[in-house]
Protein: LiaI-LiaF-like domain-containing protein
Organism: Thalassorhabdus alkalitolerans
Amino acid sequence: MSKKGTFPGVLLIGTALLFILDEFQLPFSNQLMQWPTVLLIIGLAFLCQGLVSNDNNIFPGSVLILLALHFHALSFIDAWPDYWGMYPLLIGVAFVFTYMKTRKEGLAAGTVFILLGAGAFFADELFRLAGTELAGAFQTFWPFLLLILGMYFIFFHNKKAKSR
């Protein structure tokens, strides 16, 4: 398999399958003829390119695939959560996928994003348990915590990884 031709090849195959679905009115073709399917095709192309070569396309491919699946699930499954906490959760899973392939990077960031997403889902219950005063302070200052954590990843985490 040609490493350079993987991305455009998967894009062409995905686009062809999309048009075949539309042309022959196969089951579920109306539901799949939506914009999340385009994200899914592009994500598959990135992921396939990242898996056959040593470039860093696994993360964007995983994010696009997971977002596409999320948006499709919103239209297919009534009980699927439509909450902002889902986005950091999906990004965290994409980081973990990247770590599983590279074994170098993504585990720490993935853990932070998964905890952020999971915390968002259970925030009301956690705040109830913590008390109103602590909950109010956390709701006011948690974006600053994310800002500090982001600066840590930019300025210190890379230096620590390079010194190993």
The chain has a mean pLDDT of 85.
